[in-house]
Amino acid sequence: FSAFTLSQAGMVVRWWRRREPGWQRSIVFNGIGAVATLLVLVVVAVTKFADGAWMVVVLLPAVVLVFRAIHAHYTEAAVELAAETPIDPDEISHQVIVPIATLNQVALQTLAYARSIARGDDDVVSAVHVTDDPDGAETLRLQWEEWQCGVELTIVESPYRSLVGPLLAYIDAMHAQYPHKTLTVVLPEMVPAHWWEQVLHNQTALRLKAALLFRPGIVVADVPYHLRRRPQHPPLAIEHGAAEPSPQRPTEEAAVRREPRRPRVVRQAGGRPSPRH
User: 0.70 exceeded by the pTM?
Assistant: First the structure.
């Protein structure tokens, strides 16, 4: 009877809004039907409430209210939707921040990407390192000075071994210092060879991304570095006096599986070094 009541009431509202020919007679019939089914609905709900009628009386209005709240949220979001960063490419000025742990292959790859998107005269790229180890920080500083990439390195001391808190504080300070720039945080992320190894990596990056998600005007980009396992082959036994096997040209598959070597700094003629692998 609840369905009958809703359908009859809906027809009454329809006739009242459209006022089509013959609507006066139809609205009377549908109105009488809505009142009659409503009375039956009330009687059944009262007499059969404990036998299951409570589901219709309580749950149905609750579901309707939830759906109306969801609809109101989508309507409000569509009205308030506005761009938090410039929509004209010529108006975007980059402030790129790269958190690094050490100057390894992953960091070099991430810094190269960050420098590639910040090519304007007003664009700024900076690296930040949070540590509680003064000796490790000094080692990284010396490596950075030897590399001479032109990117400013900021070392943040964290005596309580906290990483996300000091990083967020530094990012907020840079965002407040350059409010007219589009701040992009480029995060290096290692992708293990097996899915179960994921829990051993990128926990800080995940927490940092989750925290930056609720900071408007900040763009977060991931630079993945895929780890590949090289197959372990036992050494070949060579008999005494036998000729050693001639070196073969590595196949394309072997070249893909080969682990990258550590980067070394090669100084160019212009005085600006570039990492070589």
Answer: no
